[in-house]
Amino acid sequence: MKNNDVIVTEGVTKVYSEDSVPVEALRGIDLAIQSGEFTALVGPSGSGKTTFLNIISGLDTPTEGKVWLSGKPLSSMSGNELSDFRRDNIGFIFQGYNLIPVLTVEENVEYIMLLQGVPKAERHRRVVAMLEEVGLAGFADRNPPKLSGGQQQRVAIARAMVSEPAIILADEPTANLDSKTGADLLEMMSRLNGQTGMTFIFSTHEQMVMERAKRLITLKDGQIESDEIKG
């Protein structure tokens, strides 16, 4: 493990049971991802992309193998420790936005910081700055149902980044968006990646994400088929 590795997996295997038949979703994944990468996990449906994201985030556990995040082995953490570690170190961006509809944009974005115990004035300062960064200045008091899909995903990106986690995991973040909105958001995330040094890992089958990623890891049948760092 190198000093700048933020995610390391060793022999990660995941076996599910479907109708009492074992199904191997992941088959011995060895991978290291370094701080500041802008990486895409690609492959057809069923290749293991989402399963792998769930395992490296601690949302799921491997059947075999080990995972380290920021040098810490996930298997050594209790449930509460893992929950706190995930809260403080990982930001999530989902295909379906996962915003809380009865909360305002500001309340959605500040939610993780509220759990972290960040003081109110500091939460507000960060939310205002982040909403401006994602092009939603002036939207703080609106509720998500009154926003377009692209605007809701911008809120989700702001929520993921505002607590300044080391890692952003994005599962098909542009799948529900039109091509122009998706491209605009990817350009914004690429810019924020360069500005902040946060590590971005996408699970995707979309070409526009693959084109912008600086590293492409292709999964097939639960194994790494290729790993390309783009010049």
Please count the beta strands (DSSP E, at least 2 residues each).
10
Q: Please report which band the strand proportion falls in: under 5%, 5-15%, 15-25%, 25-35%, 35-45% or over 45%.
A: 25-35%
Main sheet attributes: strand count, strand direction, barrel closure: 6 strands, mixed
- Helices and strands, in order, run as EEEHEEHEHHHEHEHEE
Gross morphology is: globular
**Weakly predicted, low-confidence segments:** none
Oligomer: single chain
Query: What is the strand arrangement across the widest sheet?
Result: 6-7-8-3-9-10
Overview of this protein structure:
The chain is of the alpha/beta class. Helices cover 36% and strands 30% of the residues. It has seven helices and ten strands. A hairpin with a 2-residue loop joins strand 4 and strand 5.
Question: Can you lay out the helices and strands and say which pair or pack?
Answer:
Blueprint: E1 5-18, E2 21-34, E3 38-42, H1 49-56, E4 64-69, E5 72-73, H2 79-89, E6 90-94, H3 105-116, H4 120-133, H5 149-162, E7 167-171, H6 179-196, E8 199-204, H7 207-212, E9 215-220, E10 223-229
Helix pairs in contact: 3-4, 3-5, 4-5, 5-6
